[in-house]
Amino acid sequence: MGDPGMSLAELIQAVRGARTQAAERELVQRECAQIRGALRAGDPRAGTSNLTKLLYIHLLGYPAHFGQMECFRHLSSSQFSKKRIGYLGAALLLDEKQDTHLLLTNTIKNDLLHHSPCVQGLALACLACLGSSGMCRDLVGEVQRLAGDTPGPMRRKAVVCAVHIVRKVPELADIFIPICDELLEQRNHGLLHATLLLITEMCERNPDVLSHFRKAVPQMVEILRDLEGSGFSPEHSIMGISNPFLQVRVLRLLRVLGQGKEEIAEAVSDALAQVATNTETQHNVGNAVLYEAVMTITRVRAAPGLRVLAVNILGRFLLSKDRNIRSVALTSLARLVPAEQGSLQRHRATVLACLRDPDPSVHRCALDLSLALVTAANVRTVTQELLGFLGSCPLVMKPPCASGLLLAAERFAPNKRWHIDTMLQVLTVAGSSVPDDAVSRLIQLIGGARELHPYIVRRLYAALANNISQQPLVQVATWCIGEYGDLLQGGSCEEAESMQVEEEQVLALMERVLQSHLTLPLTRAIALTALMKLSTRLQGDIDRIRCIISIYGSCHDLELQQRAVEYDALFRKYDHLRASVLEKMPQVEVMGPGKEEEVVEKAGPETPVPTPASSAHQDGTQVTNLLNLLGESPAAPPTPHSQPGPDTPEIASLLDLLGDVTVAVPHIPPLLVWKGAGLRLDFAFQRPPQDSDLLLITASASCTHPSHTTGFLLQAAVPKSLQVELEAPSGTTVPGPDGGPLTQRLRVRNPRKVPLRMRLRLAFTPPSGIPVQENLEINDFPVAAWQ
C-alpha cells in the first residue's frame, strides 16, 4: 500500500482494502504526493496513468485541482488516447468559472477543425458540458458548420451541442433555424430526436422562433402518425412501443407550439387521440407516452371530449400497483382541477381510496387533490372520508389535513350546525395539530348561532367530560360552558340528547381541567375566567368558586395570578357589580386578513362602533389594573364602545378590562413582495393582541396570467435574533385569476423588537413549463410589523 508505481487498478484495490477512513485518507494523500512529484518532473510516460488516478481520487471526493494543467497537456497531444483522457479530465476538473477558459476555447476550436470525426466528437462533448457564454459565442460558427454538412453521427452531436449554446446564449437561436428546417426532413431517428430537442429549446426562449416553427406543425403530426402506424422494429421499438423517446419529444414540442392557439389544437387533435387510444399500458414505456399525451392534450386546450379522455387516462393510472405512477397521476390531476372539475368528480372515490396507501408521497398528493375536489354538493361525503384519514394518518400529515378540512367546512358548509359539528370533530381528532386560529374561529361561529347554544353547550360538556387532553377542544369547551353554562340546566334543545347535569358536576369538571397536568397555561387562563363567569350563571355554591380562584392568587404564572387576584377583589369589594361585569359576550365579527379588525356589538342600532382614532392612544401591551384594586394605578377611562347607561365611569372601565370587548390592534399595511413570471406574492400582517412578540404573516400567491401555476414552494430564513415557522400551504397549485389565491402562513417571533429582515426562496413552474426559482431579501417591512 502506497507503492509509487501502482497502477489505477492497484490503487482502486488498495482503497477498497482500507479498513478505516483514516487509512484511506493516508493512502490518498501519499498517492497525491507521488502524483505531484511526477507532474513536476514532467515524466511523459507516467502522465496518462497519473491523470487517470487523479480523476479517480477526485471521484472519491478528495481535492485534485492541481491536475488541471496536466489536462491541457493531454488536450494538446496528437495521440487520441491522451486527448480522450484530457477531455475527460477537463469535464471533471474544470468549469466555466475557471480562468483557464481561454486556453480551453483555443483547444476546442482547433479540435473542431480536426479531420478526425472522433476528435471532433470529443470537442463537441466538452463544449456541450462546460461551455460558458463567451465560449459559445466564439465557437458557434464551427458548431453551425458541423451541424450543417457532416455525416450523421457527428451531425447529431453538433445539434446536441447547439442545444447547450441556445440555453447559454438565447439570442443565437436564429442561426440554427435554417439547419432545423432542413433536418426536419431527415428520417434518422437519432438526428430527428436531437433536432426536435433543439427546436423546443429555441421556441421556449424566443417568440419569433416559436411563430416560425408553428408552420411546421403538420410535419410534427406526420412524424407522430408514422411512429404510431409503423410496425415492430428491432432497432427502435421498446416493449412493443415504436421509439417512445421520439414520441415523447414530438409530444412535448407540440405542447409548446399549440399553447394558446386553437387552430393548432384542432390540427393535432386526431393525432393525440390516436396516441391516447392505441398506446399499450402494460409497461412503463407506454405509460410514459400516455402521460406526455395527456399533458399535451390539457396544455393545448383540445376538444372537450379529448380532455375527458385525458382525465380518464389519469384515472386509470390511479388503479396501477406502481406507486410512482399513482403519485404522477395525482399530481397531474391536481393541476387540472380549475379547468376539469366536472370530469375529475367521476374519479373522486378512487382518489379518496389513495388516502389509505401507506406511501407518504401518495397520500399527501391524494390529500391535496381530495381537498381540491370538495364542492357544495359532495362536502358531506368527502369530509367524512377525510375525518377518517385524519384519525389514522401520521402526525406530520395532521396539520395540512386539519387545515384543509376547516377551510372546506367554512367555504361549503350547508348549515351552521353541520359546520360547528365538523369543526368540533376536527378539534377532537387533530388535537394540537389544528391551525392557531381554529379556536377563535369556532368561538366566533358559536357566538353567532344563538338558536344552537343549548345543543352546542351540551355536546361540548359531554366531549370535555370524556377527554381533557385535546387542548384546542378544551379551550372551546371551557369558554362555551363559561358563557352558556346556565343552558346546561334550563335550556331546551330538541336536537340534543337529554342529560341531567348538576352544578356540582360542572364545577368538578372545571376544577379537573384547572388541576390537570395536561392543561396549558392559556387553557388554564380561559378555564379560570369561565369559572368566574359560572358564578353568575349557576345558583349553587359560590364559595367553592371563590376558593378555587383564590388558590391561583399565588400562582407562579403572572397572568393567572393577576386574573385570580382581580377576580377575588371583584368578589370582595364589588360583588354588587359582578353580574353586570360578567354578562355574556356580544357577537363579534372579525374581518379578513389585510383589513383592520373591528368589534361590532349587536346590542342595538344606537351602540357606537370604535374608530381607529378613538383607540389610537391605547397601548395593547400595557397591563392595566382592574379599578385600581391593587392600588397601583388610577382607573382607566371608559372606552367609546362600552354599553351606555346610568353607571359610573368606573363600571364602564370594569366592563372593558374583563375582556368583553377587544382592544383594536394597530393596522399593519400589506406588502408586495415579488411580481414576475406570471406570479404575484403579497404579505398581509396580523399581530395577536395577547402575544406582542408574535407576528402572523399570510403569504398570498396569485396568478397574473390566464392559466395556473404549479409546483409552488416558499422557504424563509431570518436572523438568529428572530424565529420563523412556516405552516403548510393551502396547496401547491396557484389557480388562475378566476380562483382564489394560494395562502401560506408564517409565524415570526421577535422578542427583542429588532428590525425585521427576511430571505425568501420562491420556486414555481409557470405554464411555459420552465421552472423558476427566485432568491429574495426583504428589508422594507412596515415599521409596525416589528416595533
From TrEMBL:
<dbReference type="GO" id="GO:0016192">
    <property type="term" value="P:vesicle-mediated transport"/>
</dbReference>
<keyword id="KW-0968">Cytoplasmic vesicle</keyword>
<dbReference type="InterPro" id="IPR050840">
    <property type="entry name" value="Adaptor_Complx_Large_Subunit"/>
</dbReference>
<dbReference type="InterPro" id="IPR008152">
    <property type="entry name" value="Clathrin_a/b/g-adaptin_app_Ig"/>
</dbReference>
<keyword id="KW-0472">Membrane</keyword>
<dbReference type="Pfam" id="PF01602">
    <property type="entry name" value="Adaptin_N"/>
</dbReference>
<keyword id="KW-0813">Transport</keyword>
<dbReference type="InterPro" id="IPR011989">
    <property type="entry name" value="ARM-like"/>
</dbReference>
<comment type="similarity">
    <text>Belongs to the adaptor complexes large subunit family.</text>
</comment>
<dbReference type="Pfam" id="PF02883">
    <property type="entry name" value="Alpha_adaptinC2"/>
</dbReference>
<dbReference type="InterPro" id="IPR017107">
    <property type="entry name" value="AP1_complex_gsu"/>
</dbReference>
<dbReference type="InterPro" id="IPR013041">
    <property type="entry name" value="Clathrin_app_Ig-like_sf"/>
</dbReference>
<protein>
    <recommendedName>
        <fullName>AP-1 complex subunit gamma</fullName>
    </recommendedName>
</protein>
<dbReference type="GO" id="GO:0006886">
    <property type="term" value="P:intracellular protein transport"/>
</dbReference>
<keyword id="KW-0333">Golgi apparatus</keyword>
<dbReference type="InterPro" id="IPR002553">
    <property type="entry name" value="Clathrin/coatomer_adapt-like_N"/>
</dbReference>
<dbReference type="InterPro" id="IPR008153">
    <property type="entry name" value="GAE_dom"/>
</dbReference>
<feature type="domain" description="GAE">
    <location>
        <begin position="666"/>
        <end position="782"/>
    </location>
</feature>
<feature type="region of interest" description="Disordered">
    <location>
        <begin position="630"/>
        <end position="649"/>
    </location>
</feature>
<dbReference type="InterPro" id="IPR016024">
    <property type="entry name" value="ARM-type_fold"/>
</dbReference>
<feature type="compositionally biased region" description="Pro residues">
    <location>
        <begin position="635"/>
        <end position="647"/>
    </location>
</feature>
<dbReference type="GO" id="GO:0030121">
    <property type="term" value="C:AP-1 adaptor complex"/>
</dbReference>
<keyword id="KW-0653">Protein transport</keyword>
